[in-house]
TrEMBL record:
This is Cation-transporting P-type ATPase N-terminal domain-containing protein. Pfam families: Cation_ATPase_N. The keyword Transcription does not apply. One of its GO terms (cellular component) is plasma membrane. InterPro entries: ATPase_P-typ_cation-transptr_N (IPR004014), ATPase_P-typ_TM_dom_sf (IPR023298). The keyword Magnesium applies. It comes from the Eukaryota. Keywords: Magnesium. Residues 56-125 form the Cation-transporting P-type ATPase N-terminal domain. GO terms for molecular function: P-type calcium transporter activity. The lineage of its organism: Eukaryota, Viridiplantae, Streptophyta, Embryophyta, Tracheophyta.
Length: 125
């Protein structure tokens, strides 16, 4: 896909269509990312499904469906990012990792093990 074709496709998708009803003009936002949905992306990424990749048209097809450029990436302006977040959600990990244990916490965990307590009590006797 050439850069010119990509830019023409992007310009067509961004232009809002106007519908006139009884001399009232209403602006309708174009639907973005109609060629791909979250389940397709999940199949493609998590399951590494080659068939889904081929159905979407390979790398060029996925790039076109996601309205991105293989070489330059996404546009990155605020409207572009907000529409991507609206369509696909934010790119954040839902689970927080637990804080790392200190040496003292490891020692305390080891001291309260039943076998260690038995051995310590035998050593005292």
């Amino acid at each position: 896909m050439t850069k010119e074709n990509y830019n023409n496709l992007k310009a067509k998708q961004r232009s809002a269509s106007k519908v006139t009803l009884m001399s009232t003009s209403i602006e309708v936002e174009p639907v973005r990312f109609s060629g791909i949905d979250i389940s397709s992306i999940t199949k493609l990424v998590k399951r590494k499904d080659r068939r889904s990749h081929e159905e979407l048209g390979g790398v060029a097809g996925v790039a076109t469906a996601l309205e991105t450029n293989v070489e330059d990436g996404i546009n990155g302006d605020e409207d572009d990012i907000s529409s991507r977040q609206k369509a696909f959600g934010s790119n954040v990990h839902g689970k927080k990792q637990p804080a790392a244990k200190t040496v003292y916490e490891f020692a305390l965990d080891a001291l309260i093990e039943p076998m260690i307590l038995i051995l310590l009590s035998c050593a005292v006797l």
